[in-house]
């Protein structure tokens, strides 16, 4: 077992084994989707495998992909995934502030697991000081309870226009005296300039927290990159702690819909067990939420799942899935204006399956009533797609739950996050004794997120979809375990950290903090 010097509580420096590690680390990025969430998960899994009691933390997350925790709150899915990497159940302590975008200008604020109102970008700034005190306190409690806390920043670390009201990036690192590593996605191009420019844009106090760089998604010969990294060290005084290679087949719970914008494919497609593929089209709403619900379907052999946003995308689909959305009424209007709604109704009219989840399920009914203006100021009554004999009414308070039940003869569990409630339905229930799901044969839906992650139910549903769409040569695999696949993904992230990062330098940062670093000056100075 490795031994190195580490600062224990009280400031004493002693030689310790890795299982005695105490400290923290923040992972910040050059941009959104730079690889922060994956790197945090990989470091957490690597530390856990070495016997360290580790927990994740993201002070402020902006995401419509969320999950209900065992302690009854709501956090970003990325932090739930990172908790699994640590061997922990998701907790509101891991993500005390969650912003859920509702429009281009407003977002719902979820504080310590509970929705507390809507804000604009400008009005949110007025809350920054209070929120900063809250997140520093929550982080302190985690640091007292665990050996190591691995923190994730938000967006870019160099959003200097937001620095005075920053809650999640360098303001937290500086306030909590966290060492930080800066990660960037080289596959996008221009990374060396992004790393240098990010550090240079920071105030000296914030620069002092940055202890090194991580290059993400590198393709090709690392020796060609080496001269650039050497020059980067000369310019900044900071080393690159690792170059993580592009690794096909890596997928994790997405933090937000950004991950759906780079391509239409969902998950790794495995060869079919039978003679046919089952083609699943997932409608990509402008305000799509919990898009990770469809990952379990995409992991099945013989399933080709893709996002679609035009009527033409549904032409050759066997199955259409309407996923969750943070803005049911607005996204239903988008469906109608784009022609996608008519294409979905036509698809269902041919007897081919349509499946709705949460907001997508609400759209499939006869009518949506919003008496208190949860989504529309002054309230509204909107006609649904009419695919189910269902009426939805929005309630001001958000419903959060982690229910269990039986569906298609299989035990199931899931989680609920919604304002809309079923107030009338004549369709058979999808889940036994649960009114939050409808089963009208080819057309079905549920308010439950995570329902498709239940292996037995998912296989039964896939077999039914194949029969309904005439794909008799499709054979549902009997051995796919979505939970096991998630664990394999987390182990793979841990393997990448162990194989491609300077783990000794990483351990030293965690234990001893950022060493003295030079200030990087801009040419304007």
TrEMBL record:
Q: In which pathway does it act?
A: Cofactor biosynthesis; adenosylcobalamin biosynthesis
Q: Name one Pfam family in it.
A: CbiA
Family under the similarity heading? Belongs to the CobB/CobQ family. CobQ subfamily.
| One function term, GO molecular function aspect | catalytic activity
Q: CobB/CobQ-like glutamine amidotransferase domain spans which residues?
A: 279-456
Any one of the GO BP annotations = cobalamin biosynthetic process
User: What is the designated name of this protein?
Assistant: Cobyric acid synthase
- The active site lies at 358 (nucleophile), 449
* Domain CobQ/CobB/MinD/ParA nucleotide binding, first and last residues per copy: 25-251
Signal peptide stretch: none
Q: What does this protein do?
A: Catalyzes amidations at positions B, D, E, and G on adenosylcobyrinic A,C-diamide. NH(2) groups are provided by glutamine, and one molecule of ATP is hydrogenolyzed for each amidation.
Q: What keywords does the record list, in alphabetical order?
A: Cobalamin biosynthesis, Glutamine amidotransferase
């Amino acid at each position: 077992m490795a031994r190195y010097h580490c600062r224990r509580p009280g400031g004493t420096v002693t030689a310790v084994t890795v299982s005695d590690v105490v400290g923290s680390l923040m992972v910040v990025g050059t941009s959104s989707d730079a690889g922060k969430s994956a790197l945090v998960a990989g470091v957490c899994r690597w530390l856990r495998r070495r016997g360290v009691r580790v927990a994740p933390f993201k002070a402020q997350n902006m995401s419509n992909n969320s999950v209900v925790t065992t302690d009854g709150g709501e956090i970003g899915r990325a932090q739930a995934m990172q908790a699994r990497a640590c061997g922990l159940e998701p907790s509101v302590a891991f993500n005390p502030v969650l912003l859920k975008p509702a429009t281009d200008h407003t977002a719902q604020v979820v504080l310590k697991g509970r929705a507390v109102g809507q804000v604009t970008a400008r009005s949110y700034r007025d809350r920054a000081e209070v929120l900063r005190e809250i997140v520093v306190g929550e982080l302190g409690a985690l640091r007292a309870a665990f050996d190591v806390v691995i923190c994730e920043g938000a967006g870019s670390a160099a959003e200097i226009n937001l620095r005075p009201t920053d809650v999640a990036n360098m303001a937290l690192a500086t306030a909590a005296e966290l060492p930080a590593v800066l990660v960037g996605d080289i596959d996008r191009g221009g990374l060396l300039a992004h790393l240098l420019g990010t550090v240079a844009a920071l105030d000296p106090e914030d620069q002092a927290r940055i202890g090194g760089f991580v290059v993400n998604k590198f393709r090709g010969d690392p020796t060609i990159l080496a001269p650039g990294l050497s020059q980067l060290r000369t310019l900044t005084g900071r080393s690159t702690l690792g170059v993580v290679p592009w690794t096909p087949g890596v997928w994790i719970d997405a933090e937000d819909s950004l991950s759906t914008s780079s391509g239409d494919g969902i998950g790794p497609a495995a060869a079919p067990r039978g003679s046919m593929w089952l083609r699943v089209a997932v409608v990509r709403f402008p305000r799509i939420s919990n898009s990770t619900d469809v990952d379990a379907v995409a992991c099945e052999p013989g399933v080709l799942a893709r996002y679609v946003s035009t009527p033409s995308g549904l032409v050759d689909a066997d199955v259409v899935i309407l996923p969750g959305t943070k803005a049911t009424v607005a996204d239903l209007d988008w469906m109608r204006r784009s022609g996608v709604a008519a294409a979905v109704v036509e698809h269902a009219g041919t007897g081919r399956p349509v499946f709705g989840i949460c907001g997508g399920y609400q759209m499939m009914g006869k009518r949506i009533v919003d008496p208190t203006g949860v989504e529309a100021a002054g309230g509204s009554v909107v006609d649904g797609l009419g695919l189910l004999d269902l009426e939805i009414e929005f309630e001001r308070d958000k419903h959060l739950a982690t229910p269990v039940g039986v569906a298609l003869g299989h035990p199931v569990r899931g989680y609920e996050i919604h304002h809309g409630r079923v107030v009338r339905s004549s369709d058979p229930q999808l889940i036994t004794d649960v009114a939050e799901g409808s089963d009208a044969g080819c057309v079905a839906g549920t308010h439950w997120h995570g329902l498709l992650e239940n292996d037995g139910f998912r296989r039964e549903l896939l077999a039914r979809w194949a029969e309904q769409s005439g794909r008799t040569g499709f054979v549902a695999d009997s051995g796919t375990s979505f939970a096991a696949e998630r664990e394999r993904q987390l182990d793979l992230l841990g393997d990448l950290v162990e194989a491609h990062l300077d783990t000794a330098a990483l351990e030293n940062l965690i234990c001893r903090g950022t060493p003295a670093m030079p200030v990087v000056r801009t040419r304007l100075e």
